[in-house]
Every structure is written in structure tokens, then in C-alpha cells.
Amino acid sequence: MTGTSLSTALPASRRLRDTLLMAGLLVLVVVGLAGLAAASGWDHTMAQLSRLGLIQGAALLGLSLINYLLRALRWHAFGRQIGLPPGLWRDIRHYLGGFLMIATPGRLGELVRVRWIRRETGLPLERSAPLFVMDRAADLVAMALILCLALALSAGHIAGAIPVAVLALAAAAVATNGRLMAALVTRGYRILGRWPRLFGRLRGMARTLGRFADARLLVVSILLGGLGWMAEGFAFHQLLIWLGADIGLWKAIGIFVFATLAGGLTGAPGGLGGAEAAMIALLALEGLPLETSVAATAVIRVTTLWFAIGIGALVFPLAERMSKRTVNAVENR
């Protein structure tokens, strides 16, 4: 599949629909947060936000950047496993550029990385697409393990955390089981009895998952992802301290990871709506005033989700331009 054919898999109407959906959800989230802020008193919420300055903001963004770079290194490690030629900067560029597409249903827009890989390395779709699956699965495993650790080390409990952690681990286990996925694809083809070419490619992707069955790679990927998400969880803990609401390191990390997982499992673009609602509710259960919960949720989402999208917006044009340059160089030989 060429870069052109991959891009046509997501026609303009689909991209427009996803954009409008994301914009609509964003408006609802902003209106919801604004309503909660108004209910608690705008002056109280603004007073909480005034506790933060440039240094605090830079620290929060820096911790988020650590997360993104560690996960980009994981993407690089996965790429080498399936035979991508050496290119650390190329892989980091692809990974960060794909963040522009985070806020698409199921984050499927991040498959744009596959197009860039195809253009720059010639690796076929069947070999490169499983990178997307492994990246999402590695995040689920790392976050589920962090959540379990937070539950073990924090006082009290987080309602619904155990089922969410189990669901995340189960989803990761199923998605990365090459034999199981191949069997499901075969079963689907037998039921439908059509689109043999599509199902053939899906079987090829499922077989590629077996390349990741390396214990050292899996340990390294979980470690990189775990450290990355821990950095953002620590940022949330620091944010609460700055807002005068220290609930403990592991409880803060647990709430952040649980809310992020819960939002993602809803399938909404970027977890919009679900993550914010879960975070505010859990902070309220810890006895935090509504103005503090709203302020903390708004700030951490801006410095994580929207910061990632901002980085993606900066890197995406560069990744697109360099991938096209590679294609043009090959065609002009």
C-alpha cells in the first residue's frame, strides 16, 4: 500500500467528521468545566489558578515532555524489532508528529505514522501497522501496572480502579497475541466470505505481532512506558501540592492514571469528557473543594493532552515534508 492509498483510506469527509467530533467534545468539556467553576465561584477558581506561575507551568510541561520522549524511544525499539533501518531522529519525528492525531476516535489518526514509514523506508503496511497496536498495548500495560502499584501503596482505594486495570491488561493481552488475532481474522473471513485481500493483509499484520515476543524488548518497553507515565503522574502530584491539596504521591498518581485510562477506554477522542469527569469526581471523593478539583483537572489536561497535540502540530508538517522529500528523491533517481 502506498502513502497515497493509505491517505485515501481516511477520506476528507471522514477527517472532517473526526475534526467536528473533537471540536464538539472539546466545547462540551470546556462548557462543563466552566459551569463547575461558576458553581464554585469564579473568584475561587481563579484564586487557585493564580497560585501557578511560569516556573510551575514549565515544570509540568517538562515532565510531560519526558513522557513523550521515553515513549518515542519505545517506538524506536519496536521499529528496530520489525526491521526498520536505523534512524532514531526519524522515529522520534514520526512519533511526536503523530500526536496531532491523538484526538481522533480510538486514536486511529495516529496511523499516519505508518504512511511516513512507508514513504521513508518502503516497509509494507503489514509489517509497520502492528507498531500502532504494540504502542497502544504497551501503554495499557504500563498504566495498568502503575495503577495496581498506586493502589497497593496509597491509603484508601480508588473506586473502579481494579476493573479498569484488569480490562486494560486483558485488552493488551488479546491485541498482542498474534495467533489469537490471526485466528479471529480467519474466523471473520469465513463468516463474511468477502474481501480476501483485506483479510490477507490483516493476517499478515497478525503474524508480524510474533516478532515482538521477546522478553527483553517487552521489559524495556514496559519500563520506558512506566517511567513516562510516572513522570506525568508525578506532575499531577506536584500540581496538587502547588494548589494546596496534597493527597499523597501514590494517590495522586493513581487518580491521574485511572482517569486517563477510563477516558481512553470510552473511545472518545483523547478521552475527552470521560477523563475530566473521572478526575474531578475522584478528587471530590478525596475531600478537595470543587474549585481545586476543576483547576487541577483543567491544568493537567492542558499540560498533557493539549501539550502533546501542540507538539504534534509543530512536528507534523516537518514529518510530512521530509517523508515526501524521500519519496521524490527515490522517484528522481
Automatic annotation (TrEMBL):
It is found in: Cell membrane. It comes from Rhodovulum sulfidophilum (Rhodobacter sulfidophilus). The keyword Repeat does not apply. This is Flippase-like domain-containing protein. It holds the Pfam family LPG_synthase_TM. The chain crosses the membrane at residues 20-40, 52-70, 137-159, 165-189, 209-227, 239-261, 268-288, 294-316. The keyword Transferase does not apply. It is a multi-pass membrane protein. Keywords: Cell membrane, Membrane, Transmembrane, Transmembrane helix. Its main location: membrane.
